[in-house]
């Protein structure tokens, strides 16, 4: 996680601002229940109780007059009124003594100050003077007597309370709007930052993949790498925007709720917290079970993917040997295991959320039971109880959402591990510290005592040969003789184990890979075409190759004939891997591509071994043009295609066993002769 967060450094200011907005949004959300509390206690059900001090010089009376003087509203003589909102400041033992010894009367009153008793309100008070009492600066009426006042008059009488309710409602609405703006802004910023972060990470991954050697791609399936760059990065994006930031919000929310509850009423807060150990235990137990279930699901999903890839890739063989039913049964078993693993995970999640709901409901019931008693005893106000209920429900909300977040977090951790494993893969083909600057090379190629192996067994053993500038050389041999390995080493797709490869007398390890490969034109048997158009596949994004040069290259390579017949010509759509073109057409395009880049060295690896006769004639004609004036190395099993080359090198089990022209090698009656006999003997 620490390393993953390191990628967010370029956006730390945006993230800091988003977190600040998150704090504001959390503060706004936390203030709403408190506003409800104040509205209830101050404006909806305000009342006061009469406190009469008998004049006895008791310790209790002294304590009341000293410790609680700020709560006392003097009516007359030794009689005082205490507002309901002030009882929370009293010690419970003192409150009980006041009620027990008849200091505090149970009757409740509604009070109006002199500032409020004007105009219509004063007229109503005078009209119902038998119900109202007058004191020093106050008018008060028993709550039981307020029912005797008509509704319209009561509405006027409590107009100041109604104004207070309206003000608090507007304040509530205003805070809701501010909360919306803060939440919208922080969500937008976080999503924007997350998308930028993932964009950069995806580009870094793609850039890193381009630097890795071919050996890495030989060992890693394409589907796996595509998943790393697309799916795994997307999972991280979801984790970053949906889990990580909401995690901070949840922390702020939980801490804020705990602080507010303790400030409202410590006793009731501690009662609310009695269920926290149970919540912690349930959450930890769920985390362990959910992690195991998640791993089981991912393992079985991987088996499904492997089975699907194997069956789809080998569908020709499956249908050829009528294996559909057997493969269906095998896939059904794997799919059923995946179904069961998912059901186990569903049971865990389906248990956790209702269990948290039960604990949440229990907490609410506990607060109603204990808090209700406190309201009756006037240890807390009704507004405080209502606020407590709201805060407790808010407290359990992020815990209920934990099940969904945990799944995303688990997937993100697995994805980040795979991504960083890929990022940590080092390129085995390194650039030279002080590269030799190359211009246009002559094309002399030398292999000197070259040894090479893919794993432990050598596939090339002490190979030494030289190709002079402009010379055409063919390399032949049975499958596994090491022919393609020579091309891989020449292009520096792999590094030699021992020996040296020189071009124009310079060790290729001292050349930049881009300089080396730009001077070598490689035509493979399995031609790869990108989705796009004909012209783009010849040019390959090289802006220095003009449209005219593309046309000349295709004409020279005998590819213009079929291109002109395509719908759109040079702008004709080419689908992925060139599936709409024949093998021969793809190969002609690869010749045109090589010609457009004008390399000094031309390499044809199995380039004419998989085409029809008509196209072979076109290719043979194009070959002669392509090889003219260029160093050419041709690898082919069809010996008929290489009889005109200057020299033929025969490889056998990684060693050069024969060398000469076609006729010279036939006269030797060695390995080349036997290969020739196998192909042409009737």
Automatic annotation (TrEMBL):
Keywords attached to this entry: ATP-binding, Membrane, Nucleotide-binding, Transmembrane, Transmembrane helix, Transport
GO cellular component, one term: plasma membrane
A Pfam match: ABC_tran
Annotated transmembrane regions: 167-190, 243-262, 268-288, 346-370, 376-396
Record-linked Gene3D superfamilies: ABC transporter type 1, transmembrane domain (1.20.1560.10), P-loop containing nucleotide triphosphate hydrolases (3.40.50.300)
Domain ABC transmembrane type-1: 16-411
GO MF terms held by the record: ABC-type oligopeptide transporter activity; ATP binding; ATP hydrolysis activity
The keyword Magnesium appears for this protein: no
Residue ranges occupied by any ABC transporter domain in the UniProt entry: 445-678
Keyword presence, Lyase: no
Topology versus the membrane: Multi-pass membrane protein
Alphabetized CDD domains for the sequence: ABC_6TM_TmrA_like, ABCC_Glucan_exporter_like
UniProt-listed SUPFAM superfamilies: ABC transporter transmembrane region, P-loop containing nucleoside triphosphate hydrolases
Subcellular localization(s) per the UniProt record: Cell membrane
PANTHER family: ATP-BINDING CASSETTE SUB-FAMILY B MEMBER 10, MITOCHONDRIAL, ATP-DEPENDENT PERMEASE MDL1, MITOCHONDRIAL
Designated name of the protein: ABC transporter ATP-binding protein
